[in-house]
Amino acid sequence: MSIALRGVRKTYGRTTALDGLELEVHEGEFFCLLGPSGAGKTTTLKTVAGLEQPDSGTVELDGTDMTGVEPYDRGVAMCFESYALYPHRSAYDNLASPLRSPRHRLPAAEARDRIGAIAELLGISGLLDRPVGQLSNGQRQRIALGRVLVRPARAFLLDEPLSHLDAKLRQSMRAELKAIGAVQHTTTLYVTHDSVEALALGDRIGVIRDGRIVQTGTREEIWYRPYDTEVARAFGRPRINLLPGTITEGGGFRSADGGGAPWSRGAKTSGEVELPLGAEASPGTDVLVGVRPRDLALEREGHGTDGRRPVLTGTVYVTEVLGRAVEVTVRLGGQHVSLVAPRAEATHLRPDDPVRLTVRPENLLLFEADRPERPGRRIETSTR
Amino acid sequence: MTRKSRLSEREPGSKPWLGWLADTALILYFVFALFPVAWMLILSLKPADQLFSTYFSFTPTLDSYRTVLGDSEGIPFVRFFVNSLVVSLGAVALSLVVGLPAAYASARWRFKGSENLMFTLLSFRFAPELTVIIPLFVLYQKLGLFDTYVGMVWVLQLVTLPLIVWIMRSYFADLTPELEQAALLDGYTRKQAFFRVALPLVKPGIAAVSLLAFIFAWNNFVFPLILTSSRAQTVTVGALSFLGGDRPKYNLTAAAALVSVVPPLLLALTIQRYLVRGLSFGAVKS
After folding, report:
1. Keyword annotations for this protein (chain A) (predicted)?
2. Which candidate among A33, B17, B82, B99 keeps its CA 20 to 30 Å from the CA of B249?
3. Does domain A3-234 have CATH number 3.40.50.300?
């Protein structure tokens, strides 16, 4: 089933939860809605489910306006962030609840088989006799997910279904979730605040902020062409480096640090630095140049560069070992940038060691400078 | 050794005599609070001729109870007792049937005038019954409700309904609406979500509030005093009949009063288990 929200507004008293939200989820798609808490993610799901009525705008399921259609007539299943398990019943009865309802009723024996299969899938077979009050949060979360998967649905609405699992379980459940046949074939709208989860799961991702969709796209689109600095910051750990500067006459970039700028061209040392970006912006515009930590490389001693890659010179500020890689924070003039380097290249680094960093021009992102009223938007460049 | 460890359990700086003081104060209050009951019990066990003796010794007898429950003296006490049961249980039952949906609705939805409606309901509780009793008397006479069960059950709604609606409203408000929302998405209708999900979860509250409402209805004095005469009269008013006549029969009144304490007491004991849960239910977030 396809899901569409058109200009949906929803306010609670004086707070605006959804501010003209536009969203389109295609048939069979796994769509991740990513945003910070309070962005309107849960309200979006509840509006689709029919649990909240929009003040204006419409929700369409399979192209049909759902205004006035009760939740039980919409054919969607929803997993609540609070689990919303019935505390007075056992885990089994919670899973059986949809299959005993007038809408999805199954004969008891069939229901038992179905529940058994789902419980097996989610690793909760041993818990079925327990009252849900005795279960841990992670177990409850899986029961809640089971209650959604156990019944036929035209779309799944999942509100942070993995948030309370411990890291290891979350990772394996993430993989399993996508492998579940029902999930593969059914339109799924998945809400999360975890960008890693969104990148791992989503066929497409929608970034929501202050009740509006900021950007939708595939993970590549979101990663390589983020709409603005906020979206760029939301994806990738360590976070993207954003260095302030201005646009030059030739559409390039000059760092804000003036004389002591760490940027240089080719193998030369520091000086006035210009990065040829072919920016579509007028000279003198305040901008931020973005480069992801994994796109920066340490230049090894004795190796010449090919002359095309910009080189940054700076000193080591701090290093932090992340398993097989090392996060190196480098001081460049007045700025700090972080990069992730293989352990072998970075273990010998000590604070204040001089280092030279290279980056492929196509990995540079250019943004308007952040303003108080909104984050800086991305500016098109000709280098990518 | 044990002495030492006991001492160390005490909070630093606390003085042992404070504990003794608190215990003594509690015992004094206990005696103070239970004295009327004990006095009534003694009175009810005294034979009629020793009623006014000021010294403590007397021959205990159950004659008073026999007289009261045997309907002698021309006062149908058993009937009053049954009337009280019928009227109080009826009032609570009706209030539950009407009040639970009302409480649920007011907890879940704000509609035009909902707060005014709730306040009006509450105002029945703090307005003195005496302010409406005379118009009610006239109305009841004209409508033929005077001295009837229906009339009593109806008028007692002023006592039981606000209590049930207001207390149950907070119980429903404590329940996250997501439980019913989950039921809606499981394929249940709103009515089924109420009966299958919301209602079972507030059972402890229903038990607690029913008991309270029953006690208030049972103890009500003014309404049966003015709005009944004999057929629907209740124990609160009926017990006073023993004080009339040529000579007040305090022993019979005491026996009648003690007998009339039994139903609320039994009810409280049976649902005690729910009561404790009921009072702490909203405090624990699952």
Report:
1. ATP-binding, Nucleotide-binding, Transport
2. B82
3. yes
